[in-house]
Amino acid sequence: MSQDLEEVQVKPGTEADLAPLTDLYNHYVRETAVTFDTAVFTPEQRRPWLHSHPEDGPHRLLVAWTGDRMAGYATSSAFRPKPAYASSVEASVYLAPHAVGRGIGTLLYEALFAALAEEPVHRVFAGIALPNEASVRLHERFGFRRVGEFTEAGWKFGRYWDVRWYEKRLGHHPSD
């Protein structure tokens, strides 16, 4: 890791972050198969997503800034909408192109999992569109284990993409 990490500030995402969050996500919509969204968003369209990640609770949004530039963000979101899934979340991390390879994804996940440590979360899941070796390495470094693969799960850029699923045990029980 580089000295650049000293410049990184990780904080909860707020309304003031909405435009740069949208711009960053739209990069992945336009340029990659990391997300299976195929149309870019306006900040107004992303506002409900932002508000679904309060500063506390199991559904978090943490943003990383380097100076006045957003470097990335990490989220824990509802895994599925049915009540029995409430103790499971899905984690994601997105980095700005200028921030890739600088250890910022690691900082974001460290902060996210520290925040989730006191929440009633039993399992964290992550889906990775393949190929994406950097994301696979990041998740495995944080103790995620491979649990399966959906082949040809999404169609984008004129081809099918596989998605590999990972899980991380946090161990909280709803009665804790």
TrEMBL record:
InterPro entries: Acyl_CoA_acyltransferase, GNAT_dom. CDD domains: NAT_SF (cd04301). Residues 8-167 form the N-acetyltransferase domain. The keyword Acyltransferase applies. Keywords: Acyltransferase, Transferase. Pfam families: Acetyltransf_4. Coiled coil: none annotated. The keyword Transferase applies. This is GNAT family N-acetyltransferase.
